[in-house]
Prior knowledge:
The complex is a heterodimer of chains A (306) and B (266). Chain A has 306 residues and is an alpha/beta fold. Chain A is built from 10 helices and 16 strands. Chain A has a single domain (8-52, 77-196, 217-298), classed as Aldolase class I (TIM Barrel), CATH 3.20.20. Chain A is 32% helix and 19% strand. In chain A, the strands form 4 sheets. Chain A has an 8-stranded parallel barrel with strand order 3-4-7-8-9-10-15-16, surrounded by 5 helices. Chain A has a 4-stranded antiparallel β-sheet with strand order 5-6-14-11, with no helix packed on it. The two termini of chain A are 35 Å apart. In chain B, the strands form 3 sheets. Chain B has a 7-stranded mixed β-sheet, sandwiched between helices. A 6-stranded antiparallel beta barrel of chain B has the order 1-2-5-4-3-6. Classes of the chains: A alpha/beta (306), B alpha/beta (266).
Amino acid sequence: MTDNILACRVGSVELANPLIAASGTFGFGREAAALYDPACWGGICSKGLTLRERLGNATPRVAESACGMLNSVGLQNPGLAYFMQNELPFMAGLGPRVIANAAGHSTEDYLSIVEGLAADPRVEVIELNLSCPNVAEGCMSIGTDPRQIRLLVEQLRPLTTKPLWVKLTPNVTSIATAAMAAEAAGADAISLVNTFLAMRIDIRSRRPILANNTGGLSGPAIKPIALRMVHDVYQAVKIPVVGMGGIASAEDVIEFMLAGATAVQLGTAQLVHPYLPMQILEELPPLLQELGFSRISEVTGQLKTY
Amino acid sequence: MHYNGQGLEHEAEVVNNQQLSPRYCRLTLRCSSVAEAAKPGQFVNLLSGQYLRRPLAVATVDDDLFTVGIEIKGEGTRELSRLAPGETVNILGPLGHGYTLEGAEQLLVVGGGTGIFPLQHVLQKARAAGVPTLACFGFRSRQESFLLDELEEQSDELVVTSDLGDLGISGTVLRGLEALWDSGRIRTGCRILCCGPKPMMRSVAAFAAGRELACEVSLEEHMACGVGLCLTCVCKTRNPETEAGYRYSRSCLEGPVFAATDVIWD
């Protein structure tokens, strides 16, 4: 029995608290480590890893919108081998659970990446990125088709005994169906949502603001939709749900956990307020007390629908 | 591992807000940690009522005060330009990799628009270090020029150019640079530090390369976090390790200041 009231678990994965740095908003932890001690996080998701280095998309890669932003970074990352040799040792030394986000362009890619990650004990969780909207192949093109989700996860499942989380795209008609496909194929948890495919236009040049034409919308603008989707998925599957989408406060964390999340990911908000995780962790205990919970793990799924 | 608390985030008090020209203003902010630590070319990221912060270069520094110049471009900068003395603004900084002042026998700062502000900081620090300076600043017109007296005072020698030809030398900063070069006032061992619109920096970089002068440029890209997390504010820099011959570097962390020879101008 621990006296850490923020402790929680996603399946077999124990977290010191429910805050996980979302993939693609935290690099491999080095930049945050220059600002504060990243040990405060429950977990850290790596930037999406491809088999080989990806230089990423052309610029502009970011556009602002009401209560949020669009990005089209395009999975800029140094590739799996570089990560394993140079970034993983650093990430593993930070303290929080190490979650490696795997982003393939093809089935073969995913097989190689998961095989590589599975071989290293320092990788504690593999999060399959079936949801990045900013690359032409793999990722979201798989995540929008439940049949492809199932086929892919079924092939990857035997490669590792590590927890396999599947990160879903919200750009689908039924996210519950996508989550059920992942569960049926042996996923250990579902993380959702990635960004919403979106666009901004410069009315003077008549061109999209993003060089990629479209990008993924994130931030408080998407929170209510993400919340509804977490609720949908929680009702549809038995495996744990890791919720994200516009979380920016301790209240938001509780909202997502009431909807069914066992842990949450924080991304865009900490781009604007890098010290936010510490503030949320300070605010959570008194908020739990005020709401009548003795520990955060009690909150999951306590929504009383009409 | 060092733990910094909320080390780089500050509530800065607005001490003054000065209109410089129709489109430009300058805020004086009180924040001793930024004023003490900021190096020329570094920036602060200011919160406005919009979602993302707005990156602004540190211009001048005086005791626990520093200034930032604002070009009013949209809602965020408009809101910042309306801050009144006594109000506070949430800032992150100082951020980024600044200019190299060390090891130059002479510094030639070249800029236009908001690019003038970080170069003021260069001039200030160079004078304190006893490094001789030349300055060449370009404006669109006399009406849109600003801070001329201050810039004159801060630089050992100032050349001003204007596109409309009603102030200083007629034409772009390149005409000013040519005039300085032809008169022999640019010494060997001079380093050019440039900040301005991309076409200006590109032509200044070419000017420097043609005369074997060291040159650093400060790049500005659409930015979200300003601390290296999001990978959005990148620019192409030469890199022989990749097949493509380049990588995308973050203008907020590896930059905003780069050696001009490292930059790929698309």
